[in-house]
Design goal:
The complex is a heterodimer. By secondary structure, chain A is an alpha/beta fold. Chain A is about 30% helix and about 25% strand. Chain A is built from eleven helices and twelve strands. Chain A has an eight-stranded mixed β-sheet, with helices on both faces. In chain A, strand 7, helix 7 and strand 8 form a beta-alpha-beta unit. In chain A, helix 6 packs parallel to helix 7. By secondary structure, chain B is of the alpha/beta class. Chain B contains ten helices and twelve strands. In chain B, the strands form two sheets. In chain B, strands 6-7-8-3-9-10-12-11 form an eight-stranded mixed β-sheet, sandwiched between helices. In chain B, strands 2-1-4-5 form a four-stranded antiparallel β-sheet. The longest helix of chain B has 18 residues. Classes of the chains: A alpha/beta, B alpha/beta. At the A-B interface, helix 7, helix 8, helix 9 and helix 10 of A face helix 5, helix 6, helix 7 and helix 9 of B.
């Protein structure tokens, strides 16, 4: 199953949140695959379902109110959604590790960073206390923390934001995972520190051939770091592509709009391009294509307003869900 | 309260502003030192212009804004706004000043009272400062809401009914309802989604033109500041290290910190060049800054003088508007 270089293969994933106000479909029919040793980016705005997708891979979606209602997540020859909770625990933190956006709240303030890394190591590896501490110190050295022998006995509050994120990474890679899920790993950090952390992830990936599922809203980071990318909008994948083609020739109007609306250093115009309107909430998705109310090409099109386009793949490995995308079939055109 | 200071058509002039916070230790809470959050910042903003302050967290950019409004007492320096010396103004004058300088905050969720209707939030400054009430007040609020692109029925609704971008519009309406001369925007778009950011940035520009507003724009995102501002100052550890017109700063950055800051921004440009040298290390502790230039531990050009003396902010030889504080550049 998970051969030909594919490490993680997600198919038809659907996650619902059963709330008082109704069923919020946070992830709808999401599918993509991450190859061994590559960085795959999942990009989108807040509420688009990218984090819920990542949490589903870890089987950490809060239940209730959330529930994975359909789909398959294949990882190392097995469907993670069929594992018992006990088996899943041996995968989580061991074969798949995760780092989070907020390095302050993700570390326990009452334990030293060493104790927290040692806990992970001893849970998954047959090592005694002394060996585990040695490995923890080694990990801190590996992620570029100066004086690791002393820092390993320090508490999270004694470290800066960048250092804490390094500790999180040290903890995540201490069991040499095959897949690292990084959920907005640098959003809380300053740009110069962000660059350092992303360089560190690149470096670690080169050394160990692990795959990284990078979740971010920052298209600049995607362009610099990822090989393949899925753009999510309103719980679905709008476009799936290799990075180069996505930025040189975006197919979905949403992707095109996002790229145009970013202020960048070379920009000299007077006004920025804007996508009108706001991201729809999961409880109030529009009918048809969920992007049509904001779409410059399809907002008045009957088909876009009524029938939701499905993600369709092309020969070049790209996929898009838009009636207007070049090459996308429109069998019955109602505009007659 | 007119001062003899020569403001030369500048709406706001800040001169050698210092804001120090005492560090207390021990049983008697004795002052053992000072955190120099703002350490000698001077800037001048012309009417109807935008001045951008950029820097990483903790560099003192927000403290500058708060000191200007006297929300934090400044240690020394001079702040002249519209020919009034703010730092020595009495409370009656301060009231007027606070109506003439307003703030737009970063967090559109934390900066609006969840128990007040939008109409009350936006109308409150008018009640307090202009004593406007009744139908007059409603009319004023309705007008400003339409200017920021909110529907008229927003008045009777509560903040939680709005998205992040719309809430930021409410915050902007509240800041503009008094027809201020200066608006301080403290990271106005950093909490917003990409597709919403550009809407708010365009709105701020449109409103500036319509009402001849002057902006002091604080942000960490260089691209946002470049789009919005005429003049940009880069701060590092409480001081301005480089200042120039937006175009000049981005085309020919001189200070090694500015250069590194720009290199660190992830870029979308498809052409893949060799990655420039990364800035090593982190911002030094502000409790215990290094001697000499505070950037010296991270600077690849640091030598001799840099470890002894903090370089002053001076114009570059052939460009009087481009200021830089670096010994390396002066050589």
């Amino acid at each position: 199953m998970s051969d030909n270089g594919i490490l993680l293969d997600i198919k038809g994933l659907c996650v619902n949140f059963f709330t008082e106000n109704g069923i919020a479909k946070a992830v709808q029919d999401v599918g993509f695959s991450v190859k061994k040793g590559e960085t795959f980016a999942l990009v989108g705005e807040s509420g688009c379902g990218k984090s819920v997708t990542a949490l589903s891979v870890m089987r950490l979606v809060a239940d209730p109110p959330g529930k994975i209602v359909a789909g398959e997540i294949h990882f190392e020859h097995r469907n993670l959604l069929e594992l018992t909770e006990q088996r899943m625990r041996s995968v989580r933190g061991n074969r798949i590790a995760m780092i989070f956006q907020e390095p302050m709240t993700s570390l326990n303030p009452v334990y030293t960073v060493g104790e927290q890394i040692v806990e992970t190591i001893r849970l998954h590896q047959k090592k005694d206390e002394a060996e585990a501490w040695e490995l923890a110190t080694e990990m801190l050295r590996k992620v570029g923390i100066p004086d690791p022998v002393e820092r390993v006995t320090e508490y999270p509050h004694q470290m800066s934001g960048g250092m804490r994120q390094r500790v999180m990474i040290a903890m995540a890679i201490s069991c040499r995972p095959q897949l690292l899920i990084a959920d907005e790993p640098t959003t809380a950090l300053d740009v110069t520190i962000q660059a350092q952390i992303l360089d560190l992830l690149d470096e670690l990936q080169k050394q160990s051939q692990m795959s990284i599922l990078l979740i971010t809203h920052n298209l600049g980071i995607v362009a610099e770091r990822a090989r393949n990318v899925a753009v999510m909008y309103a719980s679905k994948v709008a476009e799936l592509s290799d990075c180069k083609s996505l930025f040189s020739n975006p197919l979905h109007p949403y992707t095109q709009g996002l790229l145009k609306s970013l202020p960048h250093l070379g920009f000299t115009g007077k006004r920025l391009y804007t996508i009108p309107g706001v991201v729809p909430e999961p409880l109030r998705f529009p009918a048809g294509c969920k992007f049509h109310p904001r779409c410059p090409v399809g907002c008045n099109d009957k088909k876009c307003q009524t029938i939701e386009p499905q993600l369709r793949s092309f020969d070049n490995g790209r996929a898009v869900a838009c009636w207007y995308a070049p090459g996308y079939e429109r069998p019955d055109d109602p505009k007659i | 309260m007119n001062t003899d200071a020569n403001t030369n058509g500048f709406l706001l002039k800040v001169d050698d502003l210092k804001t120090y916070f005492p560090v207390r230790k021990g049983l008697l809470r004795r002052i053992v030192g000072y955190v120099k959050a703002v350490d000698g910042v001077s800037l001048a903003i012309k009417s109807a212009m935008s001045f951008g302050l950029v820097g990483e967290s903790g560099c003192g950019k927000t403290t500058v804004a708060r000191s200007v409004l006297r929300l934090i007492p400044a240690t020394s320096g001079k702040v002249i706004f519209d020919n009034i010396d703010i730092l020595s103004a009495d409370s009656a004058h301060m009231r007027d000043i606070r109506a003439a300088i307003t703030l737009v905050f970063q967090d559109p969720f934390g900066s609006l009272n969840p128990r007040m209707t939008v109409g009350n939030i936006v109308g409150e400054p008018l009640k307090v400062h202009k004593k406007i009430t009744g139908p007059d007040l409603t009319e004023h609020v309705r007008l400003i809401l339409s200017k920021v692109g909110l529907p008229a029925d927003a008045m009777n609704r509560y903040p939680h009914e709005f998205s992040g971008g719309q809430r930021q519009r409410i915050g902007i309406a509240r800041a503009l309802v008094l027809q201020p001369k200066l608006v301080i925007c403290d990271e106005p778009v950093s909490a917003l989604d990409v597709s919403i950011q550009s809407q708010i940035l365009n709105l701020l520009k449109d409103l500036q033109q319509e009402f001849s507003l002057t902006y002091l724009f604080i942000a960490h995102d260089l691209a946002v500041v470049k789009f919005t501002c005429d003049i940009v100052a880069v701060m590092y550890m409480g001081r301005i290290v480089e200042q120039a017109s937006a175009g000049e700063l981005y085309n020919t950055p001189l200070h090694p910190y500015t250069v590194a800051l720009m290199a660190a921004i992830p870029k979308i440009s498809v052409s893949e060049q060799a990655r420039p040298d990364r800035l090593k290390g982190e911002v030094p502790s502000i409790f215990n800054p290094p001697p000499g230039c505070p950037f010296n531990p991270r600077c690849q050009f640091a030598g001799d003088n840099c470890f002894v003396q903090n370089p002053p902010l001076v114009p570059v030889s052939d460009r009087p508007e481009h200021l830089v504080a670096c010994w390396h550049i002066r050589k």
